[in-house]
Write a structure and sequence with these properties.
The complex is a heterodimer of chains A (386) and B (373).
Chain A (H helix, E strand, L loop, with lengths): L2 H26 L3 H10 L1 H11 L5 H23 L5 H22 L8 H6 L9 E4 L2 E5 H19 L1 H9 L1 H7 L3 H23 L1 H18 L3 H26 L3 H19 L5 H26 L8 H6 L5 H13 L3 E4 L2 E4 L1 H16 L4 H9 L5
Helix pairs in contact in A: 1-7, 1-10, 1-11, 1-12, 2-4, 2-5, 2-11, 3-4, 3-5, 4-5, 4-10, 7-10, 8-9, 10-11, 11-12, 11-13, 12-13, 14-16, 14-17, 17-18
Chain B lengths: L2 H10 L1 H26 L5 H8 L1 H11 L4 H25 L4 H24 L11 H4 L7 H20 L1 H9 L1 H6 L4 H23 L1 H16 L5 H25 L5 H19 L5 H29 L8 E2 L11 H9 L3 E4 L2 E4 L1 H16 L1
Antiparallel strand pairs in B: 1-3, 2-3
Classes of the chains: A mainly alpha (386), B mainly alpha (373).
Subcellular location (chain A): Cell membrane
Pfam families (chain A): ABC-3 (PF00950)
Organism (chain A): Hwangdonia lutea
Chain lengths: 386, 373
């Protein structure tokens, strides 16, 4: 690993952390698409800043672009407040219009300036180490490292200072307001941080990767935990993992670093989406199947309790009368036997004492319909689940 | 270039004619389908799909190695559909909300697409140039066969729309009821989603990934302001979309260095702003006018009610009072008094006012109405 490689990975990791923090709150506040809107609509801000300074690294660019980001948020809110369209439509109307203005401004003046839509939108992390910051002639490292580093420090400082406020206003805006901190200030604070982070980051990695780095790690973390601190920690971990593994993947493929970081994040999300212990697809489908079998079992037990006559309790009756297929009847019977709830003698099914007890309690539950008692009951009675 | 010259050119110049026709058809079909997206609160789905189509284009190119636009569109369609149904899966199977799902799929698919594109660029194949026109769109690359494809898709779409009109309509406004009536909601849902994806994919080449979502939304959002009827809205949206396409092409053709896609989007945005402001029933302008008018009426009634209370304490309702008394009450202005005089509710005599018989009756009724409610 040479120093340029280390620098790229360092920048990518810092960007990932700086994005994951506001991203977590955006995901929790159901405002994830705002980051996409901001990342596109800051284009005119950048272009105007560039026309004024003729320098792609001027801090004025970041300032103007961040301002455009906040203007986007205000515009979206204004349109939404008129009640003419819904919030998502408002977002969808505002950012393409602003983006179009930016593209046209670039196109109209493309002859005499060096500014390319591709460069702004897509970014190229691989060039970041070549753009050095010189302080009185001394090379102190790549410029993007300093930019994103300072943004990260401010973000972390704000996060630590206002953690409680952020937490309360995210989960209960009404409570936050009644406790005396204005949800509007928190909202715009968060929007400003997101906007500045987007600008600072996309100079290095491009607009789309910023969105991916904001949303993907936070969404992945949200599938694994509901604890805010853990979610932040996980999101940061995933972001950094995506940044570093993505860099080496790109190195191996000789392709876009931003694209491959995004792809790694996508892969990570896919794995968690499928296999997360409680909220993954596999777990959800398994639980659904389990519940279906258990509901069938309960129906069957209730049926047994209601009928003392033998012909209603014959095993074949399950297939004929209740209309269950053989496989399903078999699973239900097996589950009931395993849990000692029924006895089968000469193909006649009867309830055991335990089964009778369980069914009585289940009937009580169905009649009174109190809370989620049935899950506790299942825990009490079942040795094996469906 | 003046307008008559331009119109002549549209009919004589092959390229211009193709582009104008293409963008008009595109605007019409996206306006039509966009109405459904807007009404189903899936406005940003277009944005997500247009980004999600990118890896499909890249993969189709990698597999076939040819830049045949139909193959690429097929790839885009497939990956757009995968993206859409994954979004749905995320929303229904996890506790992640729709905006997270949209942003996630949008950025992840697009990033993967970028990875593939840069990978393709490194391949020793001279064919790959021009794939990036799908990112920003280039109306100039439209050829007659593309326009035919768009027209055919629009035709099929229109036919399906007419055939399943009842189902589409009821699904939009009451999905649960549709299910209880025994309609196969899943089928209708998949059908409409597929058409939305198809329209987006068709537009990618013309206006590009980023701006496609605006073309889907803007005409529909503008049309929504003018009507409450679905059929009128769809029709209007199609017209707005088509006009955005035609005007946008005209403006961008009349000047150098103006890319067509962004101009079309801006024209559509102008339609939206105009509709937001000037629509008679929902528009901001008339709403404000109605608001001011209502406030004035209210002030007038307040003044009248105040006068009534004073007059009530006298036997003769027309007993004159000094205008100063009204100063205690802030709702009155010179203007409102004059209006009351005009309506013959009040008589002004220098600095003295008195209620007329008619004014007393009206004020009395006003008061009764207030207490009744």
């Amino acid at each position: 690993m040479n120093s340029a490689q280390i620098e790229i990975q360092l920048i990518a990791s810092l960007v990932a952390i700086a994005c994951a923090i506001p991203g977590t709150f955006l995901v929790l506040r159901k405002m994830a698409m705002i980051s996409d809107a901001i990342s596109h609509s800051i284009l005119p801000g950048i272009v105007i800043g560039f026309f004024i300074t003729q320098d792609l690294n001027s801090p004025l660019l970041i300032l103007l672009a961040a301002l455009t980001g906040i203007v986007t948020v205000i515009l979206v809110e204004y349109i939404q407040k008129t009640g003419l369209v819904k919030e998502d439509t408002a977002i969808g109307l505002v950012f393409p219009a602003l983006f179009s203005i930016g593209v046209i401004m670039i196109a109209k003046n493309a002859n005499d300036v060096h500014l390319d839509v591709d460069a702004v939108l897509l970014g190229e992390l691989a060039f970041a180490p070549f753009d050095r910051l010189l302080i009185s002639g001394v090379d102190v490292g790549p410029k993007s490292l300093w930019i994103i580093g300072s943004i990260l420090i401010v973000t972390v400082a704000l996060l630590i200072t206002f953690f409680k406020e952020l937490k309360v206003s995210t989960f209960d805006a009404g409570l936050a307001a009644s406790l005396g901190f204005s949800p509007a200030i928190i909202h715009y604070g968060l929007m400003s941080v997101s906007s500045i982070t987007t600008v600072g980051a996309f100079d290095a990695v491009g607009a789309i990767l910023v969105v991916a780095l904001m949303i993907a790690p936070a969404a992945t973390a949200y599938l694994l935990t509901t604890d805010l601190k853990k979610m932040l920690a996980l999101a940061i971990t995933f972001g950094v993992f995506g940044a570093i593994s993505g860099y080496w993947f790109a190195h191996w493929l000789d392709a876009s670093i931003a694209g491959s970081i995004t792809s790694m994040l996508g892969l990570l999300f896919l794995i968690v989406y499928l296999f997360a212990p409680r909220k993954g697809i596999v777990a959800v489908l398994y639980r659904e199947k389990q519940q279906r079998t258990e509901v069938s079992l309960l129906t069957f037990l209730l049926h047994l309790k209601n009928h003392s006559e033998e012909e209603e309790r014959h095993v074949n009756h399950l297939n004929e009368h209740i209309n269950w297929q053989k496989v399903r009847s078999k699973t239900v019977l097996e589950l009931a036997l395993k849990n000692n709830m029924i006895l089968i003698k000469n193909n006649i099914v009867s309830l055991t004492e335990k089964g009778d007890d369980f069914t009585s309690q289940a009937i009580d539950y169905i009649i009174t319909n109190e809370d989620a008692e049935i899950e506790h009951m299942k825990d009490d009675f079942f040795l094996f689940r469906g | 270039m003046d307008i008559t010259e331009y119109i002549k050119l549209v009919f004589s110049d092959y390229t211009l004619r193709t582009i104008t026709l293409g963008t008009a058809i595109l605007g019409a079909v996206t306006g039509m389908l966009g109405s459904f997206a807007v009404l189903r609160k899936q406005s940003l789905l277009g944005d997500a799909i247009s980004h999600a189509a990118l890896p499909g284009i890249a993969l189709a190119f990698l597999i076939t190695g040819a830049k045949d636009s139909n193959t690429l569109l097929l790839g885009a369609l497939v990956s757009g559909l995968i993206g859409t149904f994954w979004i749905r899966g995320i929303i229904t199977k996890t506790h992640l909300k729709s905006d997270t799902a949209l942003g996630l799929i949008l950025s992840l698919f697009f990033g993967f697409g970028m990875l593939l594109l840069t990978f393709i660029q490194k391949q020793p194949n001279a064919n790959q140039a021009g794939l990036d026109k799908y990112l920003f769109g280039q109306a100039a690359t439209l050829v007659v066969s593309d326009v035919w494809l768009m027209a055919i898709v629009t035709g099929i779409c229109l036919m399906v729309l007419l055939l399943f009109w009842k189902e589409f309509k009821i699904l939009l406004f009451d999905a649960d009821y549709t299910k209880t009536l025994g309609f196969n909601t899943k089928f209708i849902d998949v059908l409409i989603t597929t058409f939305i994806v198809l329209a987006i994919v068709l537009g990618l080449q013309t206006v590009g990934v980023v701006l496609m979502s605006a073309l889907l939304l803007a005409p529909a959002a503008a049309a929504r302001q003018w009507t409450n009827s679905l059929s009128t809205m769809i029709l209007l949206a199609a017209v707005f979309g088509a006009f955005s396409g035609v005007f946008g092409t005209a403006i961008s053709a009349s000047q150098n260095n103006l890319s067509t896609g962004p101009i079309i989007v801006l024209v559509a945005a102008v339609f939206v702003v105009f509709s937001f402001v000037f629509s008679p029933s929902r528009g901001l302008l008339f709403k404000q006018i109605r608001f001011i008018k209502n406030r004035r009426d209210l002030e007038l009634n307040k003044t009248l009610a105040f006068m009534y209370h004073i007059a009530e304490t006298h036997e003769n309702i027309s007993h004159p009072h000094a205008i100063k008394i009204l100063n205690n009450f802030q709702g009155y202005t010179r203007g409102s008094l004059q209006k009351l005089v005009k309506k013959n509710y009040v008589k002004l005599d220098g600095n003295m006012w008195s209620l007329t018989e008619e004014g007393f009756k009206t004020a009395c009724n006003l008061y009764n109405q207030q207490t009744d409610e």
